[in-house]
TrEMBL record:
It catalyses: L-fuconate = 2-dehydro-3-deoxy-L-fuconate + H2O. This is L-fuconate dehydratase. It comes from Actinomadura gamaensis. It is an enzyme of class 4 (lyase). Its EC number is 4.2.1.68.
Length: 427
């Protein structure tokens, strides 16, 4: 099919009004999507986006529009989506702005994910199943192997996928029957009162979640109090992760985590700069047995490779829209599988839960073959704006069955939240 149009939309939600999404580094987020629609000559559409928190969304929209000359008027080969992604990412003039990082890379993610949404619709399959039913050879061809082969070769990746091929059908059936484990950050936003934290933490346990997460990093005394209250609310058997959102230098990260550890911290997330590989490794050595989790701001597969090489993390947190979409996350899943590291994606935001569930479910069926110690983040915000919103049943993501990547926003939501002229922003 031929791509005849690429549309980019600036869509923003005023979540800063209620401090939803607030943390130590991002006190006033307005959850936003630089949203793209690919239109084809046979009437099919593909929907994708990259996530921002307000100002800067216009930069990502412009970056998406800059990809239009590479896309519009071209024939989309649904059997070569890896080639499609590589053509975008390897464009020399746009690549110069990264390379392979920042707004231009996030824009490529929006377009690549829209192409996968389109492919899922054409095949009549949700994207997790579209991927999971590919042959190992087809999956290997999705990834960009440049810069990875010193650690993981296509041949070794093929072995991992062939080993996981046994049991695919059984895991698919189990996934459809019982869903995929989730944890919730809903109780833990830094701007919430103690009373709201306790109430939402108790509700999370009642809803079947076995892990919650709290934002930390603004004030140590406040964090100790909030951690104590959360532990009292959920009891000893529920995992509590904490997330510093890059707030600290290495030394304070170690000291702060040790101060919270007596209350049973499962992992410390983004303890320092997402680019500081050796800093994360130092924190990990110092705070064990508390785990170190990071990845939502890791720019690309090369950074993932180095984090794994350096033993800098216990949990890899991929993001559906930070790296260049599905194809680069296939590489990240394979790198993690080769190192025996669990992948627990970053979600929340607007639409991130909808998008990343497909990647984790594919990982379970066709790559790692396990959901042990693996959870997808869940935040109860803004799902009503999507045509195929996530469904949580007893603390687990129900597997999507609708064709595509669950990334299409409702037309009314797009119109009302268009920035700056949509009704929500005018009022």
């Amino acid at each position: 099919m031929k791509i005849v149009a690429l549309e980019a939309h600036d869509v923003r939600f005023p979540t800063s009004r209620e401090l939803d999404g607030s943390d130590a580094m991002n006190p006033d987020p307005d959850y936003s999507a630089a949203y793209v629609v690919l239109r084809t000559d046979d009437g099919l559409e593909g929907h994708g986006f990259c996530f921002t928190i307000g100002r800067g969304n216009d930069v990502c929209v412009a970056a998406i529009e800059a990809h239009a000359p590479l896309v519009v008027g071209t024939d989309l080969d649904l059997g070569d989506l890896g080639g499609f992604a590589r053509r975008l990412v390897h464009d020399s003039q746009l690549r110069w702005l990264g390379p392979e990082k920042g707004a231009v890379h996030m824009a490529a993610a929006a377009v690549v994910n829209a192409a996968f949404d389109l492919a899922g619709r054409a095949a009549g399959l949700p994207v997790w199943r579209l991927l999971a039913e590919m042959s190992p050879e087809q999956i290997v061809d999705l990834a960009d192997w440049r810069y990875l082969t010193d650690v993981l070769t296509p041949a070794r990746a093929l072995e991992i996928l062939q080993d996981a091929k046994t049991g695919r059908a059984e895991r698919t059936e189990k996934l459809l029957a019982t869903g995929y484990p989730a944890y919730t950050t809903t109780p833990g936003w830094l701007g919430y009162s103690d009373e709201k934290l306790v109430r939402l933490a108790r509700e999370a346990v009642a809803d079947g979640f076995t892990q919650i997460k709290l934002k930390v990093g603004a004030n140590l005394d406040d964090d100790i109090r909030r951690m104590r209250l959360a532990r009292e609310a959920v009891g000893p058997d529920i995992r509590i992760a904490v997330d510093a959102n890059q707030r600290w230098d290495v030394g304070p990260a170690i000291e702060w985590t040790k101060a919270l550890a007596p209350y049973g911290v499962y992992w410390i997330e983004e303890p320092t700069s997402p680019d500081d590989v050796l800093g994360h490794a130092a924190v990990r050595r110092a705070v064990a047995p508390v785990k170190v989790a990071t990845g939502e701001h890791i720019a690309n597969r090369v950074m993932v490779k180095q984090m794994l090489q350096a033993g800098a993390l216990d949990v890899l947190q991929i993001d559906a829209c930070r790296v260049a979409g599905v194809t680069e996350n296939v590489a990240n899943l394979l790198l993690a599988a080769a190192h025996g590291v669990p992948v627990c994606p970053h979600a929340g935001g607007v639409g991130l839960c909808e998008a990343v569930q497909h990647i984790s479910m594919f990982d379970y069926v066709a790559v790692s073959g396990t959901a042990d110690d693996r959870v997808i983040e869940y935040v109860d915000h803004l799902h009503e704006h999507f045509t195929d919103p996530v469904r949580i049943v007893n603390g687990r993501y129900a597997a999507p069955t609708a064709p595509g990547m669950s990334t299409e926003m409702r037309a009314a939501s797009l119109a009302a939240h268009a920035f700056p002229d949509g009704e929500v922003w005018r009022s």
